[in-house]
Amino acid sequence: MTESRRSPVRSSRDESAARAPFVALVDRQRLLLCVGSGGVGKTTTAATLGLLAARRGRQAAVLTIDPARRLKDSLGIDALGGEPHRVPLEDLGEAHGGSLDAMLLDAKHTFDALIRRYAISEGAAERVLGNRIYHSISTALAGSQEYMAMERLHAIASEGRYDLLVVDTPPTHHALDFLEAPERLTALLSSRAAAILQNPTLILSRESSRLAQAALAAVLRGLERFTGFELLRDVGEFVAGIEGFSSGFQSRAAEVAAFLRERDTAFLLVTTPEPARVGETLAFHQELARAGLPFGGFIVNRVLPADLVREPPPDPAREEGRDAALARKLAAVHQHFGGLVEAERAEIAQLERAAPGVPLIEIPLQIEEPTSLQSLARIAAALDG
Q: Using an 8 Å Cβ cutoff, are 72 and 99 in contact?
C-alpha cells in the first residue's frame, strides 16, 4: 500500500461502492486479521486500517506477530514491545475522537504467564521457568510463538479496552499455519513423545525386562556424561514440571479457536496483482472456507492505475526526425504498460470470480513507500472517502 499522485485508493468498480464494505468492517468488527504471503504489504495494510478506525472515532490497536517488527517503522514510532504504545495522531493535525495503539504480541512473556497460571504450585512454576529446556522451547519450538501470540490476542480482546484489534500476521505459505500451530503444540505436550522425554526407558515395550530397562538407563547416563551437562535431567524435569498443563493449554486453545470464528471477527486476504501471489491468495481463500473462518474480503496492493494508458500515445507516423524517434519510444512504453495493466486486471478478475460479491479494494502502486504516519494517513483518509 502506497501513495499516488491521484487518489491513493481506486477500484475497477465504482470507488465509493468498493470502499463502503471495508469502512463497514472497520466500523462494526472487533477483530480484523490481515493474512497473506510475505512482501505483499500486510503490515502497511494493518496500520492503515487501524488509522482508519481511529479517524472514525474508534479505540483501535494494531498488533503484530511478525518478529521483524516492521509495524514500528510503518507507524513512525520509536519502540514496539509487549505493552501498548500510543501512536501520536496529534501529529496529523486531526481530531476524530479515536485513538490508536501498537504492540508486539510477546510470546515469551505470555508463555511465562501461562506457566504461572497452570502450575500446581509457585515452586513448580519457578522450576519450569528456570529450566534450560523451557527457555529453548518457549522461544524456538514450532508452534509456541503462534500459540502464545493468539493467547495474548485473546487476553487483550477479553479486557474490552479496544473497540477494534487489527492483527498483522507473519508471512506464511499456508493461511492457517499460525492458527493451527497451537493445536500442534498442545498435541505434542500431551503425547507419548513427551512421556518418553520424561522417562526414556518407555521406549522399550512393557514386556521388556527390568534388565533391559536398566541397561538403557545406563546408556543414557553415559550419553549424559558425554554431552557435558545434565541434558536428560533437564528434559525430564521440564516434562514433569508441565505435566497436567496440557489440559489447560488445550482449553485455552479451544477458546481462541472459538474467538476467531465469532461474528465480529473477519479475515482479510492481502495480496498484489502478480500471478504467483494471486494463486497463493486463492489457495488461502479455500483454506479459510474449509476451516469455516469468517472472510472479510481482498485487499490488492500496488495496482497499476488503469488510466496510466488511457490516453493514446503519440503517432510516430505524424512526427518527423527526433520527434518521430521519441514518439516511437513513447509508443513502445505505452504498449508495455498497457500489457502490464491488462495482465493485472486479469489477475484481479480471478479474485472476483473466486468470491463473487465479496469486498475487494485496490490500492494503487505508489511513487514512494509509505514509511511515515502522514503517508499512511493519506491512504486511510482516501479509504474513508
A: no
Residue for grid cell 495474548: 152
| The Cα angle at residue 246 between residues 245 and 252, in degrees rounded to 5 | 95
**Grid cell digits, residue 281:** 491468495
Question: Which CATH architecture does the domain made up of 15-384 adopt?
Answer: 3-Layer(aba) Sandwich (3.40)
Averaged confidence pLDDT in the chain: 78
Which among 360, 40, 62, 24 is positioned nearest to 175, based on CA atoms?
A: 40
Check residue 304 and report its DSSP letter.
P
Q: Which set of grid coordinates corresponds to residue 178?
A: 499460525
Phi, psi of 100 (to 5 degrees): -140, 125
DSSP state letters, 334-359: HHHHHHHHHHHHHHHHHHHHHSTTS-
Helices marked H in the chain — which ranges? 15-28, 42-55, 70-74, 107-118, 122-129, 132-140, 144-159, 177-189, 192-198, 210-227, 231-241, 245-259, 275-291, 321-354, 373-384
Enumerate the domain spans of the chain: 15-384
Read off the pLDDT band of 243 (50, 70, 90).
low
C-alpha cell recorded at residue 210: 527390568
Mean pLDDT of 304-316: 75
Query: Which residues make Cβ contacts (< 8 Å) with residue 31, sequence separation at least 6?
Result: 153, 157, 164, 165, 167, 259, 260, 262, 264, 265, 266
Distance of CA 147 to the CA centre of its chain: 13
**Interval 343-352: pLDDT, tens:** 999 999 999 9
